Amino acid sequence: MTAPVQANLSSRQAEIADLVQASGFMSVEALAERFEVTTQTIRRDVNGLCEMGILRRTHGGVEPPVSAGNIHYSTRQILNLAPKKVIATTVAGLVSNGQSLAFSIGTTPEIVMQALSGHEKLKIFTNNLNVAFTAAANLSFEVTIAGGRLRSGDRDVVGQSAQEFFSQYKVDIGIFGVAGVDDDGTLLDFHEEEVAARQAILANCRQSYLVLDHSKFTRPAHVRGGHLTDVSHIVTDAPLPPHIQHLLDGSQVQTIVGEDQKGEA
């Protein structure tokens, strides 16, 4: 198993990827000014990002690669990386040694698993090979994975076999993300199979942790699957948008906003 993409990038490269994804285009000169480095340094950074398929060169600068659906997994591994790490650290503080956890697909659950690497005797059930390989590095963990068709780019298993896999167990905590959240609180993904696997985890856990960073509240996706009020916990990196918080008022959902290492929410 190769190292996570984020491990091979500098913090500046990760921030460059975030900036370009958010703006749609940035010139080399603007990036050099933003980071107070030379244009030659920026070109080296963006060349590396382009070689990995995270960005695409265009006249005078860089832009996100063209995509008709979800962003490629290797790109999602580094986008909003700092907020995802805040979320992961927060979740790790809520998990006790010896608990059983079901993990879904996606980069945020993967980073949560990385933050749990110092725990002991966790029982991990997942259809996410990135999670499984990370967990397997801890010899005290017991790791069980779903069988079935592998999606090579995402390194996960979806379909009927994944749904049946999760239905065999009753775990302490289910940990899953989503592609986006609609304004009415509907949870969104890009494929029906992704929704079905997530719903199977939700139906077979005692506590459910929806892990998502602030960008998911403005991100469109087209497959509906559940609602924010279906989960027991929402773990995020920033206060929820007011209209989303209003939807949760009076519900049993506990919202947990993580703090970065400086103690800032």
UniProtKB/TrEMBL annotation:
Residue runs in coiled coils = none
Look up the domain of life of the source: Bacteria
Q: Name one GO molecular function term.
A: DNA-binding transcription factor activity
Cite the SUPFAM superfamilies for this sequence.
Answer: NagB/RpiA/CoA transferase-like, Winged helix' DNA-binding domain
One Pfam family here:
DeoRC
| DNA repair as UniProt keyword | no
Record domain HTH deoR-type: where: 9-64
Report the SMART domains cross-referenced here: DeoRC, HTH_DEOR
Write the record's keywords in alphabetical order, separated by commas.
DNA-binding, Repressor, Transcription, Transcription regulation
PANTHER family from the entry? GLYCEROL-3-PHOSPHATE REGULON REPRESSOR, HTH-TYPE TRANSCRIPTIONAL REGULATOR SRLR-RELATED
Q: What is this protein called?
A: Transcriptional regulator, DeoR family
Tell me what organism the protein belongs to. Roseibium suaedae
